[in-house]
Write a structure and sequence with these properties.
- The chain is mainly alpha-helical.
- It has one domain.
- The chain is built from seven helices and two strands; from the N terminus they run E-E-H-H-H-H-H-H-H.
- It has a two-stranded antiparallel ribbon with strand order 1-2.
- Strand 1 and strand 2 form a beta hairpin.
- The radius of gyration is 17 Å and the shape is globular.
Length: 122
């Protein structure tokens, strides 16, 4: 049985190696302190801040000092791509949601209203 705290885990690929970002209180605290809040951390990711990408990958995966020695080199070799940034941004949002996965559907939207109003028919 998987614990509820791990249900918001976020997979991310770095140079073809799958990593798992784990939503923990420790990760949230470290990232929030480093950037002065989770919103600012997300802003740094959107701005493609290399140091923020490396830091959040390291903290989110719980890498040891030894494992993280070449993390910057690995991120550089991978490139700052959408495939790397999107999971990191979602991960920070999951942290802000108490480690729980984000809902893809808006809570307030009644089912069927979009079809009746013609929304989404572009």
């Amino acid at each position: 049985m998987q614990s509820k705290i791990t249900t918001g885990e976020m997979p991310v690929a770095l140079n073809g190696v799958d990593l798992v970002l784990k939503p923990t209180l420790r990760a949230m605290t470290q990232i929030s302190r480093q950037y002065g809040g989770l919103g600012k951390a997300r802003s740094e990711l959107v701005a493609e801040n290399f140091d923020a990408i490396v830091f959040i990958l390291r903290v989110g995966t719980g890498m040891s000092d030894r494992d993280a020695r070449d993390l910057g080199d690995r991120v550089y070799a991978n490139g700052i791509t959408a495939e790397l940034l999107v999971p990191l941004i979602k991960y920070v949002a999951v942290l802000g949601n108490g480690g729980k996965p984000l809902d893809d559907e808006p809570v307030d939207a009644p089912a069927g209203d979009d079809a009746e109003a013609g929304a989404g028919n572009f």
